[in-house]
Amino acid sequence: MKRTKKSFSTVADVRDILPKDEVWWDMVRNTGEKVSTLHNFHFIETPIVEQAELFEAGFGKGSFAAENDLCTFTIGRGQRLTLRADGAIPVVRSYIEHHLGYFSSPLRVYYHGPVFRRKGNKIQQSNQWGFIIIGDGDSVYDVSIMLTLLDFLRTLGFKDPVVKVNAAGCKVCRSTYRQKLKQYYRYRRRSLCEACTYRYEHDPIRLFVCEREVCGKIRADTPIILDYLCQSCNGHFQNVLELIEDNEINYVPDPYLVGDVGYYSKIIFEVYAHADASKPFARGGRYDYLAEQLGGRQLQSVGGVLYLDAVVDALREREEKLNQDEKPRVFFVAIGERAKKSSLSLMNDLRQHGFVVLEALGRKSLQAQLKAAEKSGVSVTLIYGQREVYEGAVMVREMDSGTQESVLVNMLISTVRKKIK
Ligand SMILES: [Zn+2]
Ligand SMILES: [Zn+2]
Predict the structure, then answer these.
(1) Residue 366 Cα, ligand 1 centroid: separation in angstroms?
(2) Nearest ligand (C-alpha, residue 218)
């Protein structure tokens, strides 16, 4: 009987991060840690699954996103769980659950990890790095989130990031604006796509997120939220713009900016690598009602996320590596059984002195191991054979010139360090 072997692959639209991209991911993660520390954010990590109701409440009960974008499944006796669909919602949940306001007020936290959204039959995974400041409504914090994200991008070598910014309104002025939008779309709704028809009924402000051409055309003459802001929201928006200008942030107002989730209030923004970039690298805004939506008291907070996959793709294209304080690398070649046996402790010693030690000890011959050393791109290779074991020395080979010298083991570290510099 013929047996067919099944081979597995990743689920549609999610991907592996492979060793070939390690250098880029390292760059992003190291920068993230550095920037988070410099801007005084503390680390927080929430689980990859939560109760489905949490995200439904966070996205807005009955909203298009809550109905369509969540990866929800049932276990046990009808317990509904959802894969983390957003970074901020679980953090605010955790803040309420653990009374994190006692820890510091406002609380400044950062997090990183994957976020999952359903798009039709596919799951989209996006790896994000987020910053949140919980417990203060001052516009100064809106701009410090922007500055943190900009610092992140600039440290990665993106020289001219641009911030697009819009007002999001509050409960009061947002509902006035919603009425106006509904009026505008009333006679045009037959031309809208299916998703937008749903949005028209439930959350007309989110009509702007549609990327379809038909819906884009209708958008051109819509009323804009800036004309309907209440005094408090208008004041907040003007304060943010002033701070943006004081800090010389490159920005453009965008009246159609509404973000990817419905919980934003007062201010919303996106960060682009440069003025012509089509996809945002980062997104954020204020979410003063989110805690209430999740069953807590009102808690003013503001945050933003960096989309790491998009950033890594751009870095890879740019191909320009950062001068990170990289550890010196050496390649260790050992020939013969005795040399191999004592090579482990020598390599360990090098590692403890901060060297990254590469090897190909599985290959028997000197030639094959040297070939691997060449391929690895190191500048110095250490060769340890019968004779070296006997003499208590190691042959140090400079790969560019091919010159080698025998160095006593107790002089090895200092000699190699000199040669690499
Ligand atoms: Zn308002
Ligand atoms: Zn549409």
Answers:
(1) 74
(2) 2
269 CA distance to ligand 2 centroid (A)? 21
Helix 231-246 with 139-155: angle, nearest 10 deg: 40
Distance 85 CA to ligand 2 centre (A): 22
Class of domain 19-170+230-318: alpha beta
In sequence order, the 6+-apart residues with CB closer than 8 A to the CB of 308 are 25, 28, 112, 126, 127, 128, 129
- What CATH number does domain 329-420 carry, 2.60.40.2310, 3.40.50.800, 1.10.3810.10, 3.40.50.970? 3.40.50.800
Q: Tokens 């020939």, residue? A: 335
Ligand 2 centroid – CA 194 distance (Å): 7
**Ligand with smallest separation from the Cα of 234:** 1
- 154-167: string of b/e by CB count within 10 Å (b at 16+)? ebbebeebbbbbbb
For residue range 358-389, list pLDDT tens digits in order: 998 888 899 999 999 999 889 999 999 999 99
Q: How far is the CA of 69 from the centre of ligand 2 (A)?
A: 16
CA–CA gap between residue 94 and residue 398 (Å, rounded):
54
Q: How far is the CA of 230 from the centre of ligand 1 (A)?
A: 4
Query: Which 3 state secondary structure label does DSSP give 267?
Result: strand
Q: Which residue spans of the chain are classified as CATH 3.40.50.800?
A: 329-420
Tell me: the pLDDT tens digits for 20-56?
999 999 999 999 999 999 999 999 999 999 999 999 9
- Return d(Cα 184, Cα 222) in angstroms, integer: 7
Q: Rounded distance, CA 203 to CA 62, Å?
A: 9
Q: Express each pLDDT in 101-127 by its tens digit.
A: 998 889 999 999 999 999 888 999 999
Could you say which DSSP state residue 156 is in? T
From the CA of 169, the nearest ligand is 1
User: What is the Å distance from ligand 2's center to 44 Cα?
Assistant: 36
Which pTM does this prediction carry? 0.83
What's the rounded Cα separation, in Å, for the pair 338 and 340? 5
Q: Residue 202: its pLDDT value, please?
A: 83
CA of 169 to the centre of ligand 2 (A): 23
